[in-house]
Amino acid sequence: MYKFNLGVDYSSATQDLQSLASAVPQQDGRLESIYSTNRNTLVENYLTYTWNRADHGFTALVGHSYQKFFIQGRDWSINKFPISPIEPIYNPGLGQDLTLANNKPTGFALENELQSFFGRVNYQYKDKYLATATVRADGSSKFGANNKYGTFPSFSLGWRLSEEAFLKNGPFTDLKLRAGYGRTGNQEIPSKITQALFTSQVGATTSYPLDNTTAYPAGTSYTRLANPGIQWEVSNQTNVGVDFALFKGALSGSVDYFNKISNNILLEVIPADPVQPASTFWTNVPNMSITNKGLELALNYRYASLSGFRFDIGGNMTFINNIVENSPYSVIPSGSASGSGLSTATINGYINGQPIGTFFLKEFTGFDEKGISTFRDVDGDGIITDNDRIAAGSALPTKQFNINSNVSWKGFDLALNFNGVSGNKIYDNTANANFYKLRLSKGINTTAEAIQYSQESINNSAPVSTRYLKDGAFFRLNNASLGYSLNPKTIGIKRGISGIRLSATGQNLFVITKYDGYDPEVNIDRTVNGISSYGIDYLSYPKARTFVLGLNLTF
Predict the structure, then answer these.
(1) Is 320 left (phi over 0), alpha (psi -120 to 50) or beta?
(2) Average of pLDDT values for 479-508?
(3) CB-hemisphere CA count at 13 Å for 176?
(4) Contact call for residues 203 and 223 (beta carbons, < 8 A)
(5) Which long-range contacts (CB under 8 A, 24 or more apart) does 435-443 make?
(6) Which of 143, 203, 240, 281 has CA 20 to 30 A from 6's CA?
(7) Per residue in 102-150, pLDDT tens?
(8) Distance between CA 362 and CA 341 in Å, rounded?
(9) 494 pLDDT exceeds 80?
């Protein structure tokens, strides 16, 4: 069987930003126009062959996939529009300032391609012995000419023990052992970084290279060397699991152990040789690895009575252990802080022996006799510096859990869904930037957190520290839905309508947490030099609590 898929996703946007000229206050008019285009094209081809004979079943698939991304943006502006009843967007020609210094047009264009060749084979014997093998050859234009393609195999085996003669009369309705191994690739790096980069200076400058007094003429400089050696980041994952069902399927569940190790880590790093055209460069860090391993448990129970009462409850829980190993760097910083006096500070760090998303902070110990913050002197040199930072916990939870339940009886039905995490921290950058005595003394914010410490001085600053690191565990009722299905004949409707259902649904009904921000499910992107940040809350918008009433009619 042959299958062909073609998909095109295209979007474009135009944005006009204008300021009208006025005499009081004195203001020149301005117009800025921004254009953006995003196009994603996907072509897929599949060829499938199926063969079944007696106790044997065999399926083979080969395919090809090609995807192309094109993103473009342009920006231009005009200044000094006169006071006029005609708005700038309707006549850009009225603008009187079109100098390069104030109105230089800008733009960019990115084009990336992905191509994959893949094959898969499935085999089963008597529905007892199951095997799957897959291999992919993935290519990305983000990598250099030397390493565009990577090969990623995987395989899995399954044994349905419940079909064996020695367990036919046992307690299990279903019992299956399974194991698998797979390799995947990561190509999430900026576009064009394998290519050389030149930067042009169109006018004389006084800031390059060593002082601010000597003028240098316009010209073009080498700011990034070509690096065709960058290759795919690779993750190898092994998993072993068992699926089971007891009491004619009323009680079912699974247990899974997984171990994922990522290496050839893609990072933007500082070069060892200081004589470089750029201060940083992207590379695969040798020997460094990130391991993610854990155990996942799932259990579900179903009950149905002869009277029509039905009940089922299920859930899963995952225990996760994440660790960074063999990094050649003492710390790789990430998580830029926001707020007055915090613009150069970082919050997260990748550290050997710690999970990704670790908070790397000074340890807040209270206040001195003058009401000024004190911190632990880790290295004992009598001075508080960045060398006194500690690994203070991670934004990654060590436990994740979900619970769902459904009850129905005589037309009524109720569905509940809960989720939660524990073992994680959140950095409250909002409080760090706003909720402390110095800000309160200026009449900016009045909050309980701002006056938490009576001994704090109004002259005390609030640098990044464990003072604003908080427990991120929570338990939330995500969704609750109550419904009633009614037979139209019971209310005298005999024609036209065959079914009536009334429902009431609530979303985000409650959350139990010690975190005093708006919402513990938060992760504002504060990436530094391409290094992802985790668990930072800064001016995040609270999740809505929603109530929906519904009436469904079936004709």
Answers:
(1) beta
(2) 86
(3) 18
(4) no
(5) 436/460, 436/462, 437/371, 438/462
(6) 143
(7) 888 999 999 999 999 999 999 999 889 999 999 999 999 999 878 899 9
(8) 16
(9) no
Tens of pLDDT, residues 167-200 = 877 788 899 999 999 999 999 888 888 888 877 7
pLDDT tier for residue 432 given thresholds of 50, 70 and 90: very high
pLDDT band for 214, please (50, 70, 90 cuts): low
Token duo for residue 172 = 């299990």
What pLDDT does residue 195 have? 83
Report phi then psi at 287, rounded to 5: 70, -25
Mapping DSSP to helix (H, G, I), strand (E, B) and coil, where does residue 15 land? Answer: strand
What whole-number distance in Å separates Cα of residue 476 and Cα of residue 470? 18
Alpha carbons 295 and 282: distance in angstroms, whole number: 34
> Which of 106, 271, 279, 273 is CA-nearest to residue 209?
279
Q: What is the C-alpha to C-alpha distance for residues 63 and 65, in angstroms, rounded to an integer?
A: 7
* Beta partners for residue 151, in sequence order: 137
Q: If you count them, how many residues does the chain have? A: 555
**What CA dihedral angle connects 450, 452, 453 and 458, to 10 degrees?**
10
- Give yes or no for a contact between 327 and 285, defined as CB atoms under 8 angstroms apart: yes
Indicate the helix (H) or strand (E) that contains 484: strand 474-486
Closest among 235, 155, 151 to 188, alpha carbons compared: 235
**What's the rounded Cα separation, in Å, for the pair 350 and 346?**
12
Cα 188 to Cα 120, 191, 391: the distances in Å are 25, 9, 27
Q: What is the mean pLDDT of the chain?
A: 90
CA dihedral defined by 470, 474, 478, 480, rounded to 10 degrees?
-140
Which residue, among 376, 401, 387, 548, has the nearest Cα to 479 in the 3D structure?
548
Residue 345 pLDDT > 70: yes
For residue 160, the model assigns a pLDDT of 93
Supply the pLDDT for residue 421.
97
CA 101 to each of CA 16, 35, 198, 203, 400: distance values in angstroms, whole numbers, following the listed order: 20, 21, 21, 10, 53
Contact between residue 183 and residue 240 where contact means Cβ atoms under 8 Å apart: no
What's the sign of the alpha-carbon dihedral 88, 93, 94, 95?
positive
Closest of 229, 226, 231 to residue 195, by C-alpha: 226
- In the chain, the N- to C-terminal Cα span, in Å, equals 38
Q: What percent of the chain has pLDDT over 70?
A: 96
CB atoms within 10 A of CB 386: 11
- What is the pLDDT at residue 202? 62
What pLDDT digit, counting tens, does each position of 235-276 carry? Answer: 999 999 999 999 988 999 999 999 999 999 998 877 777 667
Give CA–CA dist 520/11, Å, rounded: 33
Tokens matching residue 493: 């409707």
> 281 versus 521: which is more confidently predicted?
521
In whole angstroms, give the CA distance from residue 289 to residue 128.
Answer: 37
Instruction: Name beta bridge partners: 469.
Output: 427
- DSSP string covering 193-213: TTS-EEEEE-S-BSSSSS-SS
